[in-house]
Automatic annotation (TrEMBL):
Protein name: Sulfatase N-terminal domain-containing protein
PANTHER family tied to this protein: N-ACETYLGALACTOSAMINE-6-O-SULFATASE (PTHR43751:SF6), SULFATASE (PTHR43751)
GO molecular-function terms, A-Z: hydrolase activity
Residues annotated as domain Sulfatase N-terminal: 3-347
Organism whose genome encodes this protein: Phocaeicola dorei DSM 17855
PTM: The conversion to 3-oxoalanine (also known as C-formylglycine, FGly), of a serine or cysteine residue in prokaryotes and of a cysteine residue in eukaryotes, is critical for catalytic activity.
Keywords linked to the UniProt accession: Hydrolase
SUPFAM superfamilies to which the protein is assigned, alphabetical: Alkaline phosphatase-like
Protein's UniProt keywords contain Hydrolase: yes
Keyword Hydrolase among record annotations: yes
Length: 458
């Protein structure tokens, strides 16, 4: 199904997320503002307060103001409620996606590896079980509640490889502590079915009006525990099966659009929030079963990293009405521009001061303009920033370990001195900073001016 989108649309091979981890990347895409401009946008705990504030302008606000029905489904990971650790999960949350422009939402409270392990529907726990009130803590466990660390015998579905050894839900230990939940607790093997079914229902309900849907799957994110019907479909174990499940979800949405005659005039953008990671906390044999496959291809680094593998992501744009010539494009694009680009598509006016880093590059997305974005700014997990142009990449000097310290076998890209790489050569192998001081200075100046907002992109 993903292959269908690629074969009928434009596949971008030089597309970039703004950050190498989930929370800041999603924040930037939905607000058009670089996450590093705002404190508190690092990888969010499951009980983080809502990181995008109600007064901020979002992509959903933009579509809603243009007459679109708006919905969000799946992995959220941008916080809920007004303040961190102050949520009452047994009542409607004080701040949720309805405050950010979404008419309807059916989301995971954070991620599958973080508590609380419940779905949130329109700002309150779905299938709430009053006999099992929910409590959540990221500081200490609740008396009598088992953990993966102390009770490994209860981990009948997946065991952790590093971290992820706190509260146990569905035979899998998580990050953070929770008690209660009862009938509201999800079963990991049913997550894809659940969010996909709700998304298909949303399409059916709004088939006669314009709609915007943010559909964020969990499949390849840990813990990878796909439904039994996808097990053993390939030789890469649970990670491969989870990718097959993701492809099925894409197919379900396409089938719904096809049946209702909506495919021709529906713009679909398929992408990821960051680069790949194999062992991200659970013993799912993903490393052992790669069989020579390299998830990041010939790119250096991966999720979390300042290197290209951290932020270069797949992007497919599919819109039969506007794209009638499938192609593979190496034009340089960034997710930061999607808000302004889509606003241009629907003739929406962005309020002054909103989406300050987003530019209209709609012609790029539709294959009508092959002009590269002049530069792309990227953020590693320790806030190291990089400037990427079509031909060069500058990584600012930063202190930190050479490898990700908590488990994944990924180079960080951190170095105490500036790095400069010729991107015409794959792999970011040779630091050319001393050979090209003028290029280092040029890219440093771009970064400085973007930081203080004194530069405008042409």
């Amino acid at each position: 199904n993903v292959n269908r989108l690629a074969s009928e649309g434009i596949r971008f091979i030089n597309a970039h997320a703004t950050a190498a981890t989930s929370t800041p990347s999603r924040y930037s895409m939905l607000t058009g503002e670089y996450a590093w401009r705002k404190p508190g946008t690092d990888v969010a705990a499951g009980n983080a307060g809502m990181i995008i504030r109600p007064e901020q302008y979002t992509m959903a606000d933009m579509f809603k103001s243009s007459g679109y029905a708006t919905g969000a489904f799946g992995k959220w990971h941008l916080g809920l409620g007004d303040k961190t650790a102050q949520q009452d999960w047994n009542a409607p949350l004080s701040a949720s996606l309805g405050d950010l422009g979404f008419d309807y939402s059916y989301i995971m409270a954070a991620t599958a590896d973080r508590v609380p392990c419940v779905f949130i529907e329109n700002g309150q726990v779905a299938n709430y079980d009053p006999s099992a009130p929910i409590e959540v803590s990221y500081i200490k466990n609740f008396p009598g509640e088992p953990t993966g660390k102390d009770n490994p015998e209860l981990l009948y579905n997946l065991k952790p490889s590093h971290g992820h050894d706190m509260s146990i839900v569905n035979g899998i230990s998580r990050i953070g502590y929770m008690k209660g939940g009862g009938k509201a607790l999800w079963k990991d093997e049913n997550i894809a079915d659940s969010i996909t079914a709700h998304a298909v229902d949303f399409i059916k309900q709004h088939k006669d009006e314009p709609f915007f849907m943010y559909f964020a799957t969990n499949d390849v994110h840990v813990p990878r525990f796909p439904h039994n019907r996808f097990r053993g479909k390939n030789k890469m174990g649970l990670r491969g099966d989870a990718i097959a499940q993701f492809d099925w979800s894409v197919g379900q949405l396409l089938e719904a659009l096809d049946k209702m005659g909506l495919t021709q005039n529906t713009l679909i953008i398929l992408s990821s929030d960051n680069g790949p990671v194999v062992d991200d906390g659970y013993d799912d044999k993903a490393e052992e079963l790669l069989n020579g496959h390299e998830p990041a291809g010939n790119l250096r680094g991966g999720k979390y990293s300042a290197f290209e593998g951290g932020t270069r992501v797949p992007v497919i744009v599919h819109w039969p009405k506007a794209i009638n010539k499938p192609e593979v494009s190496d034009v340089l694009i960034s997710q930061i521009d999607w808000l302004a680009s889509l606003a241009s598509l629907v003739d929406a006016r962005i309020p002054k001061g909103s989406a300050p880093d987003s530019y209209n590059r709609l012609a790029n997305l539709l294959g009508q303009d092959k002009t590269d974005r002049p530069w792309v700014i990227e953020q590693a997990s320790n806030h190291t920033l990089s400037v990427r142009t079509k031909d060069w990449k500058f990584i600012e000097g930063s202190d930190g370990p050479k490898m990700i310290p908590w488990g994944p076998k990924i180079e960080t890209g951190y170095l105490g001195i500036p790095q400069l790489y010729d991107m015409k050569q794959a792999g970011e192998k040779v630091n050319l900073a001393t050979e090209h001081p003028e290029k280092v200075f040029e890219l440093q100046q771009i970064l400085r001016k973007v930081r203080d907002k004194s530069i405008q992109m042409k």
